Amino acid sequence: SLFVLCPSYAQNHICFLVVQSMDKSISSTEGEMVHVEVINTDDYISKLSNDLLLEILSKSSTEEVIKTSILSKRWGNVWKKTPCLCLDMRRIVKTTTLLPGVFHQAANSVTKVIQDHCGHLERCTIYHDSRQCENGMLEFWIQSLVNVKHIKDLTLENFSPGSKSNNRSNVTLDLPPRSFSHPRLTSLSLSQYNLKAPHAFLVCWNLKNLKLIGISSEVEVFNAVLVACTSLEVLALEITCHRKYGILKIDNHNLKFLYLSCSRIKGVEVSSPSLDIISIGSLSCEMENFIIASPRLHFNRNYWATGKVFPHTSYYISCPYQGEASIGHEIMMNGSNVCMKMFASMSVSVDLTNAKEVEMLRQVLAVWPGDMQEVEILFKSNNAARKESESSIGNTQNAFWEDTKPFPSAQFCAYTVWLSNFSGSNEEFALASRMIMQGTVARCMIIKPSTVSPANKLEIEAAIARLKELPKGHENLRIVMF
Predict the structure, then answer these.
(1) Which of 51, 131, 189, 336 could form a disulfide with 155 if both were Cys (CB 3.0 to 4.6 A apart)?
(2) How far apart are CA 9 and CA 17, in angstroms?
(3) Closest CA to 350 of 293, 408, 269
(4) 280-312 confidence digits (pLDDT tens)
């Protein structure tokens, strides 16, 4: 068989058309036998069910998916049932000289795609020109997607051809009340707008995931939006306040993940007992004006301790109930979300006797993009030595440390590593020794012992002395006790 690939699918190794061939001999006009290949052009892919065809189309862009409608009658309406749409008007800037009416035609095409779609639409992303905010078309798209199509995940990003990124948020987003309050809508991302008022978010208990990126407004507007979104589990704020006064208040008992990058802000107050991860990209306020009430996130190192130069992430590793996914961990591992991964320093707490938590720590460090400036690993207090017969979640106590692979990986490297609440247990010693010998720590390992009795102090000092005697992956590595 000969496999003929549609160019747009070749990269994903998807067979678009199968052409079967067979050998046959025929006589020529001169009486000689000529060997030829007869091709049977049966389109077996088109005979597949709609579910399989949609799975094939899910590997390509919306533009390529819509083009399949010209292949045959069989493909004419398949694209209209795809669960995801990405409508990107930015490509027009690259392919046209912006003649009058070009953007108007493109906007009408977006409208037609939304109206023609007749399947179960889960997710839609729209990159649009600022003019759609001014002529009411963006409002129409939102109304169609949220209240008619009952979309679950909506992403809207404004762009202005030729404008610098820090000026794009001057486009005002002024929508009718409760524009985002439909119960089916659970995830919303807005980028590069000026938010005039909070009424579009009234009664938004339905939202679990909210990202406001490049948004400017008054601090009172942001606070009103957050008060209206009572069910948030994931919140990402990259915002600018019009005037540097007032306090940004985040009070949510369901919040698991919080990302903050706020300029022209006087202070921040966070109250969230369920918060596992808080990441600070940039904050213009001082440390005394940043108040956080979250019992899990108590570390010695933070955004200000590293000198307000490096973004910082605080991560309390915990294992959810059986069968549930860790929302924060999924975000940390999501390679498509670059702004959530370019963190230069991190504090993380972990139970080294829990194999599942140790694996989660390894996964996060292994996918980190580039060398890290600083890592603080805070050992949970239940890391005291256990009997050999005891077992941890998922594995026996020492099974993880018997693995000969580098921890977390051969590529990961941090200039400074803090080991806090160090008790000298076998698990803690194993982790520290791996980092020293494998070159995970480049410059300095700082060990902060736990509060212990004089007798345990001698054991800790002995463990640190043994660590100093180990062969080092970096010759100039220093090991000190804090």
Answers:
(1) 189
(2) 11
(3) 408
(4) 999 989 899 999 999 889 899 999 987 777 899
